[in-house]
Amino acid sequence: QVQLVESGGGSVQAGGSLILSCAAFGGTISRYCMGWFRQAPGKEREGVAGIDTDGRTMYSESALGRFTISKDNAKNTLYLQMNNLKPEDTAMYYCATEPTLFCRVVVGDYTFWGQGTQVTVSS
Asked: What is the pLDDT of residues 57-111, one digit of tens each?
């Protein structure tokens, strides 16, 4: 069973940047769909970005142009580079994985989840 451990969250001012990491254990991410999701207080969890087994990337409208998802198969680690952060990006960020070739950034598609890392953006 795959276990995911996120890190890299923190508090930044608007306009700042953060890099989130997600280390995978017990599975090989090169064979899985990988995604980043977030959940703000009082809101539903939503998709942010995804990457498939061939490295093709997908982004939500809010992430497009500001966030970059990537992975290092050798390190079995997923990343999310977040630039020009806004207060509305404040949320708990989760990585998730699913052993399928059909990748979407949809919460219900993913079985394995990390515990999350908090991102707080102040104005």
From this structure: 999 999 999 999 999 999 999 999 999 999 999 999 999 999 888 899 999 999 9
The DSSP-derived string for 39-100 is E-TTS--EEEEEE-TT--EEE-TTTTTTEEEEEETTTTEEEEEE-S--GGG-EEEEEEEES-
Paired tokens of 16: 């700042």
- CA–CA separation, 51 vs 63, rounded Å? 14
* DSSP 8-state class, residue 68: E
The number of angstroms, rounded, from the C-alpha of 96 to the middle of its chain's C-alpha atoms is 7
